[in-house]
Amino acid sequence: xxxxxxxxxARVSSEQQSESKTIESQLSELRARVKTLGFLLPSxxxxxxxxxxxxxxxxxxxxxxxxxxxxxGIDRLYVHCPDRLARNxxxxxxxxxxxxxxxxxx
Length: 106
What we know:
Layout: E1 6-12, H1 15-19, H2 22-36, E2 46-50, H3 60-70, E3 76-79, H4 90-100, E4 102-104
Parallel strand pairs: 1-2, 1-3, 3-4
């Protein structure tokens, strides 16, 4: 049986959030959850958009994540909460993801 490939995605939008280490706290929480569940998390499956607004779906790490998902390289995705993927589009953008493999950390 193949081991599940898990990934994490974290995002903060403002410089203030970035400076207050919000991204580090998201990553720490997500890494801990993945470890607690017994999964390995390769660094190349950590996707981070630091300083990008959730109002746009065009972000470097999110685009890379979509490419990896499309190629079948991820079985399960962990995010702090769906609004880290997209503010106004969270439900529609991740609806199919959530039903198949997305897991929140809360």
